[in-house]
Write a structure and sequence with these properties.
506 residues; 20 helices; 62% helix; alpha/beta
Length: 506
């Protein structure tokens, strides 16, 4: 009996993974179609991006719940990177999307192999907050025309949103009705349980309505039937132009699966390896680039479905990919699917990402971080469709705010017991704060002219870089040239390395 028990447990574990994987497959099929549209690609490429990538990722994933495939943010970043290089939906554009996915994959794989999982720490919370809120507004703006059945719209995402909302006479009543039904099914299904496939039900209803009625709004159109095409025939000459966008997507797009996997692991008190997840996400994107897809990432909603469906191992993602893969030979049944359904699915999915109330609360807490969030938000809207550049603006501004605060608030605590002046610098001593430290020390020296001996106590110093050590050495030299003696006390252990390398203050 003891020999059969583990087999029974293994069978139950695999059964739960199969159920979880199939549950996610029901969700990712309509989402994949919708996110491909968002990326400026034919909807069927969303199926390709949801087939082999999660299957490949499952071999290396660290999180047992993280579901890989098409996601809204990465899709919008893809559109932003490629729309200025080719016409969305054209063969050239599709080829660029494949090459972009391959580059993103290689970069993530490389970062994972060198244990670079901490790379996402360069994306501060205010930058992520402002960027995701701005990107969500743009995503909604890009999908409103689809949801309302409007075909004649301008190219700019914000211009498109304004034009569509200000022209209700152009709205298609059938598309509006289907969008409302889709939104209701997704929202109500989510309220009942994430396991309820509201988006899939909306797809079924949309197909039935389009097939049996006289539907006049745009539909998906012809969908190739067959397994994803495997090819290395890519526009390699465009590789240099895609390096920067690929690098930005590789880092920004990994922030989402990082947050997902970390959150789910913490809830289950499990360990999680960011670098290993980078490898899995890298392999997934390489698979997407070689099999007709586009850049992919981790989905919070689908990962939650996998968790609630009882996933036990990372192989539930492989079940999802395999299920989508087996669906592709009959994907032609989706040809009559109203595009309004896809637009509504995307809008409902990204609405929670518009976090304006949180940005307003941040304004009341800290002006510096609030400025970073709002500036990133505005830059995301203003630089559309090149929203990848908005991230660089946010990261740069966050660095400036950090350096300003660290350099302008250096404190030197003093105690003068004639003739000894004791100085205790407090803070992080780096290139940005070195001048502030020097000024603070010299001010205290000038304020106590009766001192003939200085004691510099360093136990309150944080990190010290070479510029900081140079500032301390220059101060010690100035003190000696002024005719005073100087002693150093309590050098903390964490700066002993650089202290010994530069020879201390001698």
């Amino acid at each position: 009996m003891s020999a059969r028990a583990p087999q029974g447990g293994l069978s139950r574990r695999w059964l739960r993974d199969v159920i979880a994987g199939l549950s996610v497959a029901f969700v990712v099929v309509p989402q994949g179609l919708a996110y491909a549209e968002l990326a400026g690609l034919p909807p069927y490429t969303g199926l390709y991006a949801a087939a082999l990538p999660p299957l490949a990722a499952s071999f290396f994933a660290s999180s047992r719940y993280l579901q890989t495939g098409p996601v809204a943010m990465t899709s919008l970043l893809t559109f932003g990177a490629l729309s200025a290089m080719a016409t969305p939906g054209s063969p050239e554009y599709i080829g660029l999307a494949l090459l972009l996915a391959l580059l993103v994959g290689l970069m993530r794989l490389g970062l994972g192999l060198v244990r670079g999982g901490a790379i996402t720490r360069f994306m501060s919370h205010p930058v992520v907050l402002g960027f995701t809120s701005g990107a969500a507004v743009l995503i909604i703006g890009s999908q409103v025309a689809l949801a309302l059945g409007v075909t004649d719209v301008p190219d700019g995402l914000l211009d498109r949103l304004f034009t569509v909302l200000s022209s209700p006479s152009e709205w298609n009543g059938q598309a509006v009705m289907l969008s409302a039904v889709t939104a209701a099914l997704v929202l109500l299904g989510r309220r009942v349980s994430p396991l309820v496939p509201g988006a899939l039900l909306a797809v079924v209803i949309g197909l039935a309505f389009s097939g049996w009625g006289d539907y006049t709004a745009p539909v998906v159109g012809a969908v190739p039937e067959g397994f994803p095409p495997l090819s290395l025939s890519l526009p390699w000459s465009s590789l240099p132009a895609l390096l920067v966008p690929a690098g930005i997507i590789a880092i920004i797009g990994f922030a989402e699966p990082t947050a997902i996997a970390r959150t789910l692991a913490a809830r289950d008190r499990e360990r999680w390896d960011a670098s290993r997840e980078l490898v899995s996400q890298g392999v997934a994107n390489i698979a997407a680039g070689l099999s007709g897809g586009f850049p992919v990432g981790g989905s919070f909603s689908r990962s939650s479905v996998a968790k609630l469906a009882g996933a036990r191992t990372r192989w539930n993602g492989a079940i999802t990919g395999l299920a989508v893969l087996l669906f592709t030979p009959v994907a032609g049944v989706l040809a009559d699917l109203p595009r309004a359904v896809l637009g509504a699915i995307v809008i409902v999915a990204v609405l929670p990402l518009v976090r304006i109330p949180e940005m307003l609360r941040l304004t009341r807490v800290t002006w510096g971080q609030s400025a970073v969030a709002w500036a990133t938000f505005v830059a995301t809207l203003a630089l559309s469709p090149r929203i990848d550049l908005a991230v660089l603006v946010g990261v740069g501004l966050a660095a400036v705010v950090h350096i300003y605060r660290e350099s302008s608030r250096f404190v030197v605590r003093t105690d003068f017991a004639p003739p000894v002046l004791t100085m205790v610098p407090v803070g992080v001593l780096f290139y940005g704060s070195a001048d502030a430290l020097a000024e603070a020390l010299n001010e205290q020296l000038a304020a106590n002219p009766d001192a003939d001996r200085v004691v510099l106590s360093l136990e309150r110093l944080g990190r010290v870089d070479h510029s900081g050590m140079t500032a301390l050495q220059e101060f010690a030299r100035d003190v000696r040239e002024a005719g005073l003696s100087i002693d150093v006390e309590r050098v903390p252990r964490h700066i002993r390395g650089i202290w010994d390398r530069v020879g201390g203050l001698g």
